[in-house]
Amino acid sequence: MKKVVEDVVLPEIAGILGHEINGVLTSLLLTTDLAEEEGLFIAKGLRKCVEHLQRVSNDLSELAERRELNLKEVECKKFFNEIFGFAPECFRKLKVDREKMRWALSTLKESVKEGEVSFSISSKEVIVNISGEETPDLHPFYFRERILSNPYLLAYAARKIIERHGGKVENGLKDIRVILPFADEEPS
């Protein structure tokens, strides 16, 4: 589990946090520049604070660079059977980073209260439906308000991993739908 946290979760969260911090820092630097032009003494202290946060942000960005995907084709049925203990009758292939996608799907399942998994297959994709009593809100604006204290940050990181695989995550009140294209289909 520690390896999964180091290799999958931390880089993904670092990427999210690095992006959020950079937005704030850009605004602070503009404010600092204006304050320095006005000769305000506090601007020097603010600039030092911003420079320190930029170093932290750069460290997060370096950690986020490890988010690269090691894509390989895997048989759909075998892959889902490994994760959920059952799978649809499907012999087509998915192109995934096995470890990262396994973590993402497991995390989404765990984030849904009393989650149950079902599958549907079309000619182009497989849909994993995780339904239950309560699902987390995976909307990015929700995270900007309370990014460090949000209990669903891991579910949001899972969503970002799925999207980087060319998949989509649709969030409903009582279910989460994960749509993954087959390996021989172009992601939409």
Q: What fold name stands as the CATH topology of the largest domain?
A: Heat Shock Protein 90
**Spans with pLDDT under 50 lasting ≥5 residues?**
none
Q: How confident is the prediction overall: mean pLDDT?
A: 78
> What is the CATH homologous superfamily assignment of the largest domain?
Histidine kinase-like ATPase, C-terminal domain
Strand share of the residues? 15-25%
Compute the separation of the termini in Å: 32 Å
The spatial strand order of the largest sheet comes to 3-4-6-5
How many H/I helices?
6
Q: Number of domains in the coordinates?
A: 2
Helix content: 40-55%
Based on CA atoms alone, the radius of gyration comes out at: 20 Å
Largest sheet: 4 strands, antiparallel
Cα shape = elongated
- The number of strands is 6
Summarize the helix and strand pattern as letters: HHEHEHEEHHEE
- CATH second-level architecture of the largest domain: 2-Layer Sandwich
Under CATH at level 1, the class of the largest domain stands as Alpha Beta
Secondary-structure-derived class: alpha+beta
What can you see in these coordinates?
The chain has 2 domains: 2-67; 72-181, Heat Shock Protein 90 (2-Layer Sandwich), CATH 3.30.565. It is α+β, with helices and mostly antiparallel strands and 188 residues long. The protein is elongated and about 70 Å long. The chain is built from 6 helices and 6 strands, in the order H-H-E-H-E-H-E-E-H-H-E-E.
